[in-house]
Amino acid sequence: MKWTDNYYKNRPLFNSILAGALYFLFCWSLDYGDLTKGLFMSLMLFLPGLTFPLTTCYYRTDNIKYSSFHRIIHFVLSVGIYHGSVWLFSAEGQIKYITILAGLLGSLLFQLLTKFILKKEITLTQIALTSLLSGLAFLPYELSERLGIFIGLAVFLWTITNGITLNKEYRKATYR
């Protein structure tokens, strides 16, 4: 078996790992100077909201086809959910543990949106567990000195956790 076979069988998971690792490195770079802060703030304002749905949700196979309308609506609402989570996250200095709530709600709303708009076969139990773990991914950041490495770890864990759920559904839908 070639590595490409594993990639095609697990595209949402591999893409989540790759994107999560890039976000981790990008966040970690904040600990090494002010030069990357402007770039970080401008890119992280939209980049994860754009890339996560594009790299995990819209695969076409023999068993999976979505209309352009469903993909566009899902994509626009996904970006809106991401921006709402970033807005919640921005209150981190005023409200204790708000980043955990932002991670939990972002995951919950994204997974529900994916279930109902794209008709993915994700159970409500999977959604609840994924959301809880996604929120808890931000706990080290809340308990630390709020370093870039911890926000990077949180974003990486959030991305992987949600990618695992979407990968499981992708495999179920693709290899029935």
TrEMBL record:
It comes from the Bacteria. The chain crosses the membrane at residues 12-32, 38-59, 71-89, 95-113, 122-141, 147-166. Keywords: Membrane, Transmembrane, Transmembrane helix. Signal peptide: none annotated. This is HPP family protein.
